[in-house]
Amino acid sequence: MASPPQTAEIQGKGARDDEKIDISISTDQRGAVAEALKVALADSYALYFKTLGVHWNVTGAGFYGIHKLTDAQYNELHQAADAIAERIRALGHVAPASFAEFRELSCVDVDTPHKTTPEMLKELVADNEAVAKRMLDASDVAEDNDDKFTEDMLIARIGVHEENAWMLRATIA
């Protein structure tokens, strides 16, 4: 049995499912929010990947504490990325799922070569701060489109990234 053909929209940028969805926000509103969430997902996944790299490669006198801190942070980021992707799907859109898409959408540079532990931590501070600001932008899109659930989720993400930046700054102080 042949599978049904996909529409060009499903295959392209801004892809969405063809199923009928009747939730608290309109189709157009869902599209705007899903696009903002795709950026949030890319940032979360890129930061997850980068934090995991720091976790694996940290060295020095503070190794154990930094290793444990980054372990907690990358595990939390993994869960957050999953929740964001699931929200994109609940809105009827396809979540980005490739390194190429994440690289295109994210502000986090994951292509940097290995650096010293203090340099890596300084980058994670800057990345968490940048991601927090972009989560604010995405929460504004959710607010403008009356998506209270997504707005609340993204506001919570802002707090997590600001706390992560603070903990990393305190670690290298």
Automatic annotation (TrEMBL):
Domain of life: Bacteria
Pfam families xrefs: Ferritin
GO MF annotation: an example: ferric iron binding
InterPro entries: DPS_DNA-bd, Ferritin-like, Ferritin-like_SF, Ferritin_DPS_dom
SUPFAM superfamilies: Ferritin-like (SSF47240)
Family in the record: Belongs to the Dps family.
Identification of the protein by name: DNA starvation/stationary phase protection protein
Native source species: Glacieibacterium frigidum
